[in-house]
Amino acid sequence: MSTGPDVNDSDPGLGPATSGASPDAIDVYWRRGCGFCAVLIRRLERTGLPVRMHDIWADPDASATVRAAAGGNETVPTVGLDGEFLVNPSLDAVIDLVARRAPHLID
Asked: What is the pLDDT, as a whole number, of residue 21?
């Protein structure tokens, strides 16, 4: 499990910085006991896409990222990829995000 994203200095609190390099994984922000998180995580595992997990209860940076992406709320699951975030997305929405932002992650 990751200890948290690298925060982009030009946009504090909004997740992993994009340095021009292609993203190597989907960032999934979750918390224990969240049924919506469990469902999305299981579905993502079946796709074989690379995922980096961030527990918002264990990582203050991750919780700040989610609040910034979700209008001040800690709504999970939140998914981030290459500077774009989806709050409580469907698997189809995540796959669409990957196809747009990081098609190299799709086999």
From this structure: 65
